Amino acid sequence: MPVPAKSKLYDRAYFDKWYRDDNHRVISRDVLSRKVAMAVAMAEHYLGRPIRNVLDVGCGEGAWHAPLHALRPDAHYLGLDASEYAISRWGRSRNLRLATFGQLAELRFDQRFDLIVCADVMHYLGRGELLRGLPGIVDQLEGLAYIEVYTSKDKLIGDLEGFKRRSPQWYRQAFAEAALLSVGSMGWVGPRQAPWITAMEAAG
């Protein structure tokens, strides 16, 4: 009789290992700060104004919260994650809520988001959940979506447990079918911004 696959736990041990242990973590605070600054600058470029709110999908412990607050202290930050540990530990102080990626198909908020972040998440999701939740990102997007996703073509280190080795073409097709347009550097705009994107801005 086959043994059921062990469910991956995003518990304290996981976050301690991949976010704080110098022998395992693959991104420093400086690198994260530069990444946040780039995403904010891109969103504000396409919006033509400072960002007012941010939705962080698959936020983990809310690592984007502090660097975002340092750049835009008045911007409202909301993080969503399926880790019960992360929400119980950081939910109140960093405004994190319990939700899976797939639940974006039904979840809606009072206003759309100037910046939606989904960093280092989609390549761990099953195909069904990814395609189910993706339209929820597009529907709630006002400015820019920063979608950090890695593919079968990338050389990777770090947490490879459960990594889905999909091709770049697979993601591009899925994003295009969801009405997302690439503007480079893992930035994507939806139907509200796409009409203003020039031919040379659009990546590919």
UniProtKB/TrEMBL annotation:
<dbReference type="InterPro" id="IPR029063">
    <property type="entry name" value="SAM-dependent_MTases_sf"/>
</dbReference>
<protein>
    <submittedName>
        <fullName>Methyltransferase family protein</fullName>
    </submittedName>
</protein>
<dbReference type="GO" id="GO:0008168">
    <property type="term" value="F:methyltransferase activity"/>
</dbReference>
<dbReference type="InterPro" id="IPR013217">
    <property type="entry name" value="Methyltransf_12"/>
</dbReference>
<feature type="domain" description="Methyltransferase type 12">
    <location>
        <begin position="55"/>
        <end position="128"/>
    </location>
</feature>
<dbReference type="Pfam" id="PF08242">
    <property type="entry name" value="Methyltransf_12"/>
</dbReference>
<dbReference type="GO" id="GO:0032259">
    <property type="term" value="P:methylation"/>
</dbReference>
<keyword id="KW-0489">Methyltransferase</keyword>
<keyword id="KW-0808">Transferase</keyword>
